[in-house]
Amino acid sequence: MSVNPYTPPKAALEARPAGQYWRDGKVVVTRNGAVLPARCVRCNEAASTQLKRKVYWHHPAWYLLILINIILYAIVALIIRKRAEVSYGICQPHLRRRQTFLAIGWGGFVLGLLMIFSGGAAAMLGIFVILLSIVAGFAGARLAYAARITPEEVRLNGCGTAFVESLPSATEAASEQRAMLPAGSGTCPNCEAVIPMDSKECPRCKALFGGESAWRVQPAAP
Ligand SMILES: [Zn+2]
Ligand SMILES: [Zn+2]
User: Fold this and answer.
1) Measured in angstroms, how far is the CA atom of residue 99 from the centroid of ligand 1?
2) Which of 34, 147, 196, 220 is a plausible cystine mate for 155, CB 3.0–4.6 Å?
3) What is the pTM of this model?
């Protein structure tokens, strides 16, 4: 049996939405540079502020470096971490709550440092105060954070249930996007480029359509 080298793998045929954001269980899936709807990511109320945030992520296996040397881990993590930018909304009460936790975190951190430099028995307590400030303050201040970053997707954790459930599913996002395409055009199932329905080949990624190829241009209307 001959194998057509231009036939893409079956897995790539799975519908991937071309939209800006959608939900996957408790996770918000979006794209680098995307702007999420102007509702609070924690409670889904109208947002008072739209935050443009950098999010970072690295594969969790890198945490094993902490067991060897925490400084080494910090340096490696800075180099290998993947970054993306996402804009999301936050309501006034949740923004204030975040600022309170940040103040607790920094306040505790400085207090802990002072205790360490004062020496004696207070120094040991200072380390404890610093750790507690980091956990309580900075974890409490954290809003949406990256659960995974790939070139195609930014997956966000930490969003409230009401907000997540207000977003379209992956399938809904894909068909919404296709419904907005100009007449006679569709999307390439491989790279999501907008191309004419009768294309024989995708001008962007060179995927072949028709004939022996398993790929078809995705039509605008279902
Ligand atoms: Zn809120
Ligand atoms: Zn393509």
Assistant:
1) 13
2) 147
3) 0.70
